[in-house]
């Protein structure tokens, strides 16, 4: 019994015990009115006490009742389902019930996670589940809590295993590889990535070679053909080393959440996807972030560590509470980007006034470079505007939502009328639309 009292803090009475105890209380109370029932209730009470002692003895016969560990990846991808694996092994010589509570990182706000299963003697169980992080940074897992009970199920033994682990959440590596596969697949058509017909030739001439069946007859070099007395054709290659910059607004307008991720996080994931494809296309990728001050600045390059530099810079980006300073952005672009480049600018306007303030600066940037403005649709307003209204207040709300959506489309149209290429995109479609635009502009030789 000393062993029982020593470990009493780890006892957890199960619902079965309280159910049976409650039934016995009722029987004992009825025994005062029905004397023949009272001895029967006392006998049942004695049996319950004996069963409880037997249950505790079986639970505490083994000093180390179980082994458990948590397996995580080296890093997580923002906004994606990331796998977590729990490995639990029973050291009992009988079949036991297990309940595992994992202390999930506080950022995920998962407060009711548990796993129920039964293990045979010496059996090991691997449990897999997925978690979707919605913020970048360090995610801290704490202890593993295991409740073990016998088949009687009157009491459970609580085992707390110190399994503190940290995992950093980076911009989506999974999406980066996914869209890379889509963009470079030659034999398959994936949903979302468009194949754009190339207009004319690239600018970079590679060599003159003999004609083989299948070559474009428009590429025939007649002078070389005359000299060699056989058909010769010009061979071209994609123009390389073009500069592509991703410019991210991280002011307060980018704090709005959609699908669990802020607009800044959607822009961060898209920037990583685009930068990877740009580098795979042998162009140069760069990054500028801004709000009321200039944040990360990475000059366009295509070195072997460029994608890592961009990844770590994006990992540390945070939303700011102030408005964006477009004059400062213009000066920064002028100082950093020395040659004509393709600029993808991710921002969010919620009013005509905000557009009026930024438009003159955007026009000046567009004169120096090929600027593509990526605006965000408000998908929640879209749902609200098309929801069936039954009350006057709902009609008013629906009308205001339609007005705001119209204003957003008008802002995109106004940017286009001023010669600025503009894409109004749903947050979840931002990566697809951005990659498509880059491939289109490159195919048309506009970069």
Describe the fold and architecture.
This protein has four domains: 59 residues; 105 residues, Immunoglobulin-like (Sandwich); 226 residues, Rossmann fold (3-Layer(aba) Sandwich), CATH 3.40.50; 34 residues, no CATH class. The protein has twelve helices and 21 strands. The protein has a six-stranded mixed sheet, sandwiched between helices. Strands 1-10-9-5-6 form a five-stranded antiparallel sheet. It has a three-stranded antiparallel sheet with strand order 2-4-7, with no helix packed on it. Helix 9 links the parallel strand 19 and strand 20. The protein starts with a helix and ends with a helix.
- What is the CATH C level class of the largest domain, in words? Alpha Beta
CATH architecture of the largest domain: 3-Layer(aba) Sandwich
- Beta-strand percentage range: 25-35%
Q: Quick check: average pLDDT? A: 86
Number of strands: 21
CATH topology of the largest domain: Rossmann fold
Q: What are its keywords?
A:
Rossmann fold; six-stranded mixed beta sheet; Immunoglobulin-like; 447 residues; alpha/beta; 4 domains; five-stranded antiparallel beta sheet; 38% helix
Write the layout of secondary structure elements.
Layout: H1 2-6, E1 11-13, H2 15-31, H3 37-60, E2 66-71, E3 76-77, E4 82-90, E5 96-102, E6 115-119, E7 124-131, E8 137-141, E9 144-149, E10 155-161, E11 165-170, H4 173-184, E12 204-210, H5 222-228, E13 232-237, E14 243-249, E15 257-258, E16 261-262, H6 263-280, E17 284-290, E18 294-301, H7 306-315, H8 326-336, E19 342-346, H9 352-368, E20 370-376, H10 379-385, H11 392-417, E21 421-425, H12 430-443
Parallel strand pairs: 3-11, 14-17, 14-19, 19-20, 20-21
Antiparallel strand pairs: 1-10, 2-4, 4-7, 5-6, 5-9, 8-11, 9-10, 12-13, 15-16, 17-18
